[in-house]
Amino acid sequence: YGLRHMTDAPTHLGLVPLGYADGIPRIAEGAHVLIGGQRRPVVGRIAMDQMVVDLGPDPQALRLQGQEAIVFGRPDGQTPTAKEWADAAQTINYEIVTRISPRVERVYEGLPETRPSEGLPLGRHEAHDAEAMRDLGQRFGACLEAGDVVVLSGPLGAGKTTMTQGIARGLGAAGSVISPTFVLSRIHPNDPAGERPGGPDLVHVDAYRLGPDGDLDDLGLDDTLSRSVTVVEWGESLNRSLGRRTFWVTIERAALLGGGIDDDGALSFDDEEAEDPRTVSIELVSEEAS
Q1: Neighbour count for residue 124 (Cβ, 10 Å)
Q2: Strands 38-43, 32-35: parallel, antiparallel or unpaired by DSSP?
Q3: Which of 3, 93, 212, 238 has its CA 20 to 30 A from that of 71?
Q4: Cβ(53)–Cβ(13) under 8 Å?
Q5: Which of 201, 232, 200, 228 is nearest to 219 (CA)?
Q6: Using CA atoms, how far apart are residues 197 and 190, in angstroms rounded to an integer?
C-alpha cells in the first residue's frame, strides 16, 4: 500500500477489521482509534477491509487482541470524534457519519432485551366491539418487526381498518389511520414519542383494485418493504409469502347490529349496548430462515 509508514523503533501493530469499504476514509492517516482505554494512531494507508494502528512497544499490548476498538464516538475528551476523523480526511464531520456502509451491522441501544415477536397473539380471538379490535391490533403491532407483512382478510365492514388502527398504536406510528382505498397506500412514520420510539414505520395498503393477478410490486413498495411493517387490506389474492414474515389475519363478523363504518373507513358502534362480535384468526404463514 505504497509503503506509507515505517516505524522508528520496535513496536506492536494491531489490525482493525474496518476499511474504506466500510466507510472509513482512505486518506485519513493520522486519525486515532480508542483501544484498551487509550488512543492509538492509525499508521499507513487505510485498506479496503482493514486499517493498522500502532499499539506501542509495551509487551502488554499483546493482550489487546480481540478487544473493542472505537473508531469515533461521543466527545468525552478521550474517545476520537467524527470531527477529528473529518479533519484527518480533509472533509466535514457529516460525511464521516453518513458514509458508514450497509455492511457494518447496526445495533441500537435502549431496545428491549427480548424480541418483540415473543408475544405474538397467534390463534383465534373474539372482539366484541371496535375498541376490543383496536386493543388486539395494538398487542399484535407491539410484536411486529421491520420486514413483516400483515394481510387482512374479511368482508366489507369486518374491521380491517380498525385492526390497522390498533397495529399503528402498537408500532407507535404517527398520523391518523384511515382507509387507504383512494390512495392505494399510505405511509405512517414511526413517532419518536409513541409506543416504540425508533421502531419501524407502518405502510398501510389497499389491494382491492389490484385484481386477482395483482402483486405488491405494482404498488412500488420495494423501498419500504424491508424496513417497515406493511399491512395489506383486501389481500386475499396475493401470494401468501410476501415479506420476512407474512401473517394472515382473517376477520369473520356476525350480522351488523347498531353499528357501521365511519368516515375513516373504520368500524364504529352507534349503540354502546349493541354487540357485533368479530372472530379474528392470526396465522404466521411464512417465515424466512434466519
Answers
A1: 12
A2: antiparallel
A3: 3
A4: yes
A5: 232
A6: 7
Q: Is 157 within 8 Å of 253 (Cβ atoms)?
A: yes
| Distance set, CA 216 to CA 129, 159, 250 (Å) | 31, 22, 19
Task: Look up residue 227 and give its three cell numbers.
Answer: 424496513
CB atoms within 10 A of CB 152: 29
User: Treating both helix axes as pointing N-terminal to C-terminal, what angle do 130-141 and 160-171 enclose, rounded to 10 degrees?
Assistant: 40
The CA angle 286-197-186, to the nearest 5 degrees, is 60
Q: Which residue, chain included where needed, has cell 383486501?
A: 234
216: CB partners within 8 A, 6+ apart: 149, 205, 207, 225, 230, 232, 238, 242
Instruction: List the alpha helices (DSSP H) in 52-185.
Output: 82-89, 93-98, 130-141, 160-171
Q: Are 217 and 223 in contact (CB under 8 A)?
A: no
Distance CA 266, CA 160 (A): 7
Helix (H, G, I), strand (E, B) or coil at 25: coil
Asked if 73 contacts 80 with a C-beta cutoff of 8 angstroms, the reply is yes
Cβ pair 224, 206 in contact under 8 A:
no
0.85 surpassed by pTM: no
Count of CB atoms situated within 10 Å of the CB of 214: 17
pLDDT in tens, 196-225: 888 899 999 888 766 555 566 666 677 788
Find, among 81, 67, 62, the residue nearest to 36 by Cα. Answer: 67
CB-side neighbour CA atoms (13 Å) of 27: 6
What CA–CA distance (Å, rounded) separates 111 from 101? 22
How is residue 96 written as a grid cell? 464521516
